[in-house]
């Protein structure tokens, strides 16, 4: 299993956009994304703060991806 390191919310958002998600709404600092096939994911975008490991594992899981795919995408 890949050990995820904290990253900024913008990087998680770019990963979701790479997978085909687009932002549908925002409530406060939380941005909501939807894929054309109906999958959804939420990213808290707190300026100046990193996303923790737990959220970095949850976001790809919500997108029906894997943390390994996220790590591979970051390494490219």
Would you kindly provide a written description of the structure presented here, covering whatever features stand out?
The structure is a single chain. This protein is of the alpha+beta class and 76 residues long. The protein has a single domain (7-75), classed as 2-Layer Sandwich (Metal Transport, Frataxin, Chain A). Helix content is 38%, strand content 26%. It starts with 6 loop residues before the first strand and ends with a helix. The model has no long low-confidence stretch (mean pLDDT 91).
List the helices and strands and how they pair.
Elements: E1 7-8, H1 9-18, E2 22-27, E3 30-34, E4 40-44, E5 50-51, H2 53-62, H3 67-75
* Overall radius of gyration: 12 Å
Helical proportion? 25-40%
Q: What is the terminal-to-terminal distance?
A: 18 Å
CATH fold annotation: Metal Transport, Frataxin, Chain A
Largest sheet: 3 strands, antiparallel
Determine the structural class based on helices, strands and strand pairing.
Answer: alpha+beta
Text of the CATH class: Alpha Beta
Strand elements, count: 5
Task: Please state how the strands of the largest beta sheet are arranged side by side.
Answer: 2-3-4
What structural keywords apply?
about 80 residues, alpha+beta, two-stranded antiparallel ribbon, 3 helices
């Amino acid at each position: 299993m890949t050990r995820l390191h904290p990253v900024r919310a913008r990087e998680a958002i770019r990963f979701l956009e790479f997978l085909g998600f687009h932002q549908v709404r925002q409530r406060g600092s939380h941005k909501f994304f939807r894929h054309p096939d109906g999958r959804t994911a939420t990213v808290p975008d707190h300026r100046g703060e990193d996303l923790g490991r737990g959220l970095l594992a949850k976001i790809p899981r919500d997108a029906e991806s894997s943390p390994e795919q996220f790590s591979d995408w970051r390494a490219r």
